[in-house]
Amino acid sequence: MKLAVLTSGGDSAGMNAVVRAVVKTAIIKGCETWIVREGYEGLVRGNSEGHRHAHSTHNGDKGTVTPRAKGTEHLGDFVHNLRYGDGELLKDGTGDHPGGRTLKGRYIVRVGWDDVRGWFSEGGTLIGTARSTAFRTWEGRLTAAHNMIKEGIDALVVCGGDGSLTGADVFRAEWPKLVAELRQQNKITEEQATNHAHLKIVGLVGSIDNDMSMTDLTIGAPTALHRICESIDNINSTAFSHSRAFVLEVMGRHCGWLALMAGVSCGADFIFIPESPPNADTWEDEMCQMIQRHRDVGKRKTIVIVAEGAHDSKLQPIRAEFVKDVLSDRLGLDTRVTTLGHTQRGGKPCAMDRILPTLQGVEAVEALLESTPDTPSYMIGVRENKITRVPLMDAVKMTREVAQAISEKNFPKAMSLRDPEFSESLEGFYATSVLETEPKLPHHLRMRVAIMHVGAPAGGMNAATRAAVRYCIRQGHKPFAIHNGFVGLLDDNVHQLSWLGVDNWMTRGGSELGTNRKLPDIDLGAVAAKFQHYNFHAFIMIGGFEAFSSLQILEQGRKHYPAFNIPMVHLPATISNNVPLTEFSLGSDTSLNALVDACDAIKQSASASRNRVFVVETQGGKCGYIATMGALATGACIVYTPERGIDLDMLRNDVKYLKRRYALDAKGKSEGRLVLRNEVASQVYTTEVITKMFKEEGGELFDSRSASLGHTLQGGIPSPMDRARAVRLSLKCMAFLERHHQELLKQSAKSKQASPESAAVITIQGTSVKWVQVQDIVEHADMKNRRGKHSWWDNYRELVEALVARPQILAKG
Ligand code: ATP
Question: Out of 86, 114, 209, 589, which one is annotated catalytic?
Answer without folding.
Answer: 209
